[in-house]
């Protein structure tokens, strides 16, 4: 439990607890929450290797042994961060994923139902930043995570419980619309391309803001424009796939 403190102190909202400290359940829950949110900020800024447990403890306003008490080690802290972000993502996306999976499971689902289900997934993703509170460092945390720069355990949690389901339902919708086998590689590539429309506005936020001349503060009107553009492009591309299928092209 060593390292040089480089970040300041932050206090955020609570997340679920693993342990309760001797002075009571609620205090233990709030302490764990502070550690998780401080860790997201530190891991986002310095990466898993660069952020020490002392950095995280200092940012959370706790002593270093508290991290070992709640999470055992730094990898345990990291996994708890992934779990917390996953809970926010599934709160936003879970219902839409389940609805899309039901549509895919229906052999009689129409093209319109399939397209609508895919568009609702895009709608929920595009609306994520409007409806989920800002968390210091989470953009960089997830960018590093998706680039494979975090522990395998954290990636496995996020992939198995979210990313794989989202990818599978998206690919199944696109291949159904195209009238090809579910394992058709070319159409699965197209599904990934369509599903990641608008991703730059989240993972490359600073660069996009700079190139667009936008201030860094949240802007509901800007978010609305992004969402409308993503949905319009998604529907257009999916309808084009249907037209190609029907024309035999």
UniProtKB/TrEMBL annotation:
It comes from the Bacteria. Keywords: DNA-binding, Transcription, Transcription regulation. GO terms for molecular function: DNA-binding transcription factor activity; transcription cis-regulatory region binding. The keyword Transcription applies. The keyword DNA repair does not apply. Residues 52-71 bind DNA. Pfam families: CecR_C, TetR_N. Residues 29-89 form the HTH tetR-type domain. PANTHER family: HTH-TYPE TRANSCRIPTIONAL REGULATOR BETI, HTH-TYPE TRANSCRIPTIONAL REGULATOR RUTR. This is Putative HTH-type transcriptional regulator YbiH. It comes from Pandoraea eparura. The gene is ybiH.
């Amino acid at each position: 439990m060593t390292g040089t403190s480089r970040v300041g102190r932050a206090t955020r909202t609570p997340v679920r607890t693993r342990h309760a400290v001797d002075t009571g359940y609620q205090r233990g829950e709030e302490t764990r929450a502070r550690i998780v949110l401080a860790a997201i900020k530190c891991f986002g800024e310095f990466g898993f290797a660069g952020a020490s447990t002392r950095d995280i403890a200092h940012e959370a306003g706790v002593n270093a042994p508290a991290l070992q008490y709640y999470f055992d080690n730094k990898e345990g802290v990291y996994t708890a961060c992934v779990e917390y972000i996953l809970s926010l993502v599934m709160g936003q996306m879970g219902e839409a994923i389940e609805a899309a999976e039901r549509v895919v499971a229906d052999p009689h689902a129409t093209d319109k139902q399939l397209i609508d289900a895919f568009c609702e997934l895009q709608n929920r993703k595009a609306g994520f930043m409007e409806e989920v509170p800002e968390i210091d460092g989470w953009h960089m945390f997830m960018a590093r995570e998706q680039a494979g720069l975090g522990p395998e355990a954290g990636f496995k949690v996020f992939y198995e419980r979210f990313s794989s389901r989202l990818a599978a339902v998206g690919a199944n919708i696109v291949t159904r619309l195209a009238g090809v086998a579910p394992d058709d590689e070319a159409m699965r590539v197209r599904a990934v391309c369509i599903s990641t429309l608008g991703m730059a506005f989240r993972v490359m936020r600073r660069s996009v803001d700079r190139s667009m001349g936008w201030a860094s503060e949240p802007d509901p009107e800007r978010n609305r424009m992004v969402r409308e553009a993503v949905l319009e492009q998604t529907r257009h591309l999916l309808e084009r796939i249907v037209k190609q299928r029907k024309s035999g092209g």
